[in-house]
Amino acid sequence: MAAFSYNTAAELFPAAIRKKKRAGFAYRRFDTAAAAVQFAIEQLPADSLNGAYLQVEEARFDQSGIRTLYESEDFPLERRAIEPAAEPATDDADAA
User: Fold this and answer.
1) Among 1, 7, 10, 50, which is disulfide-ready with 36 (CB 3.0 to 4.6 Å)?
2) What CA–CA distance (Å, rounded) separates 23 from 17?
3) In which element (H, E) is residue 49 found?
4) Does the residue 28 lie in any domain?
């Protein structure tokens, strides 16, 4: 991926949640792209992130692009601890 500045201002346009009566997340402007990426991944509901896009200067990032920015080694903010997926229980008798 080309050099990306996480310190650049960014705009986040979440997808509209049409099926719900309550208002979803609306357009938000962030002082830094890092804060926008972190908000999108850690706080937006999955149905709002799906279809959302992040605009940083002239570049647009869809859900996949936002996730790539978040998972990058260059991401400057502390990531939320992700709980490991539950593994199926195994019977100790089967292991022996």
Assistant:
1) 10
2) 8
3) helix 46-49
4) yes
Phi, psi angles (nearest 5°) of residue 28:
-135, 145
Distance from C-alpha of 27 to C-alpha of 61, rounded to nearest angstrom:
15
Give, in degrees to the nearest 5, the angle at Cα 79 between 64 and 3.
55
In a domain, 1, yes or no: no
Eight-class DSSP state of 22: S
Domain, as residue range, for 53: 10-78
Considering the entire predicted model, what is its pTM?
A: 0.74
Domain count for the chain, please give it: 1
Tens of pLDDT along the chain (96 residues) come to 467 899 999 999 977 656 554 456 789 999 999 999 999 999 988 888 888 999 999 999 999 999 999 999 999 999 887 555 455 555 555 555
Distance (Å) of CA 68 to CA 4, 19, 76, 77, 83: 12, 28, 13, 14, 19
